Structure formats: C-alpha cells, structure tokens
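User: Sequence in, structure out. Go.
Assistant: Echoing your sequence, followed by the structure tokens.
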Amino acid sequence: MGRLRNHMSNRLSGETSPYLRQHADNPVDWWPWCDEAFAEARQRNVPILLSVGYSSCHWCHVMAHESFEDPATATQMNSDFVSIKVDREERPDIDSIYMDAVTAMTGRGGWPMTVFLDHDGRPFFGGTYFPPDDRPGVPSFKSLMAAITEAWKESRSEVEAQAAKLAQAVIPPSFANPSAPSAALLDKALRALQSTYDFEFGGFGSAPKFPNTMNLAFCLAMAYPEDERTLAIVRNSLRSMALGGIYDQVGGGFARYSVDERWEIPHFEKMLYDNAQLARLYLWAGIALDSPFFIRIATETLDYLAREMLDESGNFYSSTDADSDGEEGKFFAWSYEEFIEVAGEDATRHFGVTRNGNFEGENVLTAARPLEELENQERLAIESAREALFERRSRRTRPSTDDKIVCAWNGLAISAFADAARALGRTDYLDIALKCAEAWLAEIHADELVRIKGGDVPAFAADYGLLGLGYISLFEATGQWRWVDEAKHLASTLFSNFRDESDGFLFTTSDKTLIARPKELFDNAEPSASSAGAELALHLATLTDDQSLREATKKITSSASGLIERAPGGFGAMLQVIARQLAPPVEIIVSGDDLAAEACRRFLPFAALVTGAVGADPTTPLLLGKDLASRPVGYICKNYACDAPVYDLTGLRLALDEAR
C-alpha cells in the first residue's frame, strides 16, 4: 500500500504536511497513509475511513471543527474504523484514485473527500462534506458512519461486490489514437472557447469562476499578433480579473477563484500554482498587447510571492488560507469606517467601498480603473492609499501559510520568475529563480526527486515535468546549457518511470502497489503531467535534436487529440503544446547583451530561444557553424536552416518581426 512507518503515539505530529499536522491533536486516532494502517484494519476487521483535504480548504476546516474535534464523533470513528488522513497536495495519486470513485458514485466531487475502503484499499462508499446533524437529503457524518458499520457487519458480500466494481471503474483505460492532431483541431478548440466567453465580465463560463489561465494562454498564443477578436477575449478577461476582488488590490496576488461571475468576491485562499501561472500570463500578455497595466500586475504578483511565500532556502510555500481568526476573508475585508480612517473618503469610489459593503457587511476591494489610466494626481493619491491600507492590514492576524514545499509548483514559480527576469531585465527575479532551481538540484538523488522538500514521498510525473520546464525557462533567461542538461536528466527519468507505452500518456505515479495507477488527462489548476511532459520533450527535442523526445511528444498529442475533440476546454496546456508542435519551426540564436535583450523581451510563443552557448556541446546541431563568441550576432533559423546572420539591433528587430 505504501511506505512503512515507525508507530508513533501521535501519528500525525511528525508528518511533513502542515495539513496533517493540523489534525495531530484531534481526538481521532488518525493514521497517515501507510501499510500499518491497513494491517490494523485487517487485524481489527473494521473498514478504513479515508479523509482527504488540504490546508487552505475552507470546508475541510469546517468539517474538522464540527466532526474531527468532537469527542463523540471521534469515539465512533476510533471504535468502528481505522481512520486515515491524506493531504491531496502531498499525495495527488491517492486523491485522484478516490476522487474518481466518488465521482462515479455521486456524480460530483470536492473536498473534504470522505471515502470508505476495504482492507485492500478498494472504495465502496464515499462523498465530500458531511454535516454534524442530519439535513434534508444529506445524512449526518455520525449517521453515515453508523450505516457503513452496519453494512460492513451485516451485508459484507454486497460491500465487497461494490468495492470490486468501483476498483475496476478507477483503472484508467488506454487512449491510444492513431490520428495526429491538426490545425483544424486547434481551430475547433479556439471556437469552443470563444463560445463560452463571458462578453460582459470576461473569462469563461459562469460562477464560480476560475481564471482558466491555460486556456487564456492558448488563446493569446494562437491569436497573436493579428486575431483581434481572440486577443480581445484575453485583454478583457485579464483586465476584469485584475480590477476585481479576486486580485488582492492591496498586497498583490490572486485568490483561487471568484464566487460570482463579476470577479468581485473571491474564495480567499491564495495558491502558489495559480499565482505563478497568472504572473507569467500577465507578463507575456503585457508584452504582446503593449500593456503596462498587465506588466504591473505580473510584477506585483511576483513581488507578493517573493515577499510572503518564499523561505530562506529559496523555495516557495504552497498556499495561504482563506480564514484568519476563524473567519473567512477577515484579513482582506474592510469595514467602511476603517477604510475611511486609513485611506480617506476620496478613495472609496476607486476601491468600490460602500457603507453596506459587498461581503457580509464589509468590503472586498475592487478597482474602478487601472492606475495607468488615472491622471497623475489621482494616481499618486491611490498609490498612497494602497500603501496605507497595506500597512494597516499588516497588523491583522494573517491567514495561516501551508509551508510545505511542492516540487511541481516550485517548477512553475521558477518559470515565472525566469521569464520575468528575461523579458524585463530584472536581475532580482533571476536571482530568485536561480536560488530555487539550485535548491531543487540538491534534492535529486540517483536521478530521482521527492514530492515535498524534506519528505519521503517520491515525486510524481508532474514534478519532473514542471521542474524540467522551469529549467528550460532558466536556460532561455541565462543562455547556460547546464539547465538544458538538467532538464534532459529529468525528462529521462520521467519517461522511463511514468510512461504508459500503450498511449504515451504519463501515469501520475510510479507506485504500482495502489489499486490503480491514475493518469491525469485534463489540465486542471496546473498542467497535467502528460501536458508538462510533452512540452518538456518538445523543447528538448528542438534544442538537442533528440528524435526520441520528439516522438514522445507526438504519441502523447496524438492520443490526446480524440479527448480534446470532446472537451477542448479541459486541455489548455496540451493545446499549447500542439500549437507549438504544428507551428513552423523557428529557432532564434543570439549573443551579445543588447541583441539578447531585444530577443528576450519579444513574445514569440512557438520559437526556441538561445541566448548563449555557455557549457554547450559544440557538436549540438542547433549551434553548428555559428560563431557566437567573436562578436554580437543573431541567427533566425527555420528547422535548423538559418538566414544570413545579423549584427545590429535594427537588423535583428526586422528579423524578429518577420519571425513572429
């Protein structure tokens, strides 16, 4: 079932996950996911109660307070079950398997997730949040446990039959598809996204509304520079989000999602993976659309991450909570009176502050217009108000921080900071990206990673893929080929340990002891492992001319194409890979500070960028015949066939304009 552990009287107190440690003092006799827990269940002949959540999950805290901290509920759990607590961010494989089971049983999923298992780990009943008291259509948690206990004792054969059925349902099928993706598939996906666009408020779909970062990034890459209709979707969506309450108008950074279609009231938790991806999207949208507003939002988001989510070793924490002092949004909301005291009455109109408020009688701040569109005097006044609000807010009790350090999400952060360093010439951002990347190099042992820094859970496919892409971004920012070499090592482990040879997709985990090896097919809050792996392989194939990596990408995208036909909105990252795969190959190779800076600040989503050859193998096909050392030079190549070199900024600018 998993790792072996030494028995501890308080089994969660020594865990890496802050979410598990939050439950260490519960009266529930919690176990982490381990072989001993299953052995205990067999020895006692009781079912397993699996509870899955994460640290910044509001309803996870609610159920913990209502049920897991309640002595009577805990007594029932301890008597009739072996209870296992799992952090979904630490064990996405376990979360995926049992979420598939819950969705198959109930038609919906979410967290907290509550699943009942037999001794082999097979689910036979599950759901999400259960209240402490019976409600119409929803049993109380205690009533549910009593029914499960009765079924386990009196109807064991039916329980085992249900478990066998669900265990088969969670085994992922093969998706092998001999049909290669086409430009028509990309066009169809673009039209599907356009059809769900919210013309009034921006974004896609209705409430609750998520940023859909990968879909917007796909739209930007496909539309630039001439498809104004699709560029308007990106421009209006990013503008609406950045002016809304989903964006922290005081401290920067984005909340997880908006509960309304207007982006006004957020679910206040802030996630590293959201903010890293959104910062990168705003950066490149700002470059492509010539928007200082978007670039400011990108840098404010990165500055928030550097200020509040970065540890001393250079790694990034996972998230901050929605709650403080036991109240959702308390850190972020303002009473009318306190706002007036701090920022003055003149600022109320800009920040949308009223006496009645927009959130439980208080105000979640929005912005009437970007600072860049204000007259100078008004802008100075609003900037002064923001500073005063930030200082006052800093005296409040902060939401708790989930300080576990997740490999994949740190890879996303490396990409964001490296891209910003490259495009904006920010050496401070480069220093942050380099320190984080070096810290993760120290975590690689025998070509293998861990999921959580300081933990013992082996890394998952997404960890290898997204960290590898972070190293590619660092290569593009520095021109140092060591990052290509490191990315290639990660790709080698990724495809050796996680690939399903039948369809090319990547299994979430290399662990073969679970009841299934899940495959994360859709791009959700972060790119799927298969999308990240396919993109990494495609970058490396271009840089190193490794045809096996090119074929790995082709197999994944071919298998994905049939799924994309049915649900294009769920494959934003994969669609970007396919768009890059089908685009005419372009390689941009430059040396010299001025020429490199010009190339680095361009938005060229499908081009390979080489800004130096430090540490490169001189026989690398991409570099053969190119003198990058004697003088500044720029080469614009198409599938390794290069135009005449250019030696000045004017010539390079013209060549880059044609290349886009």
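User: And one key feature?
Assistant: Residues 310 and 316 are 5 Å apart (CA to CA).
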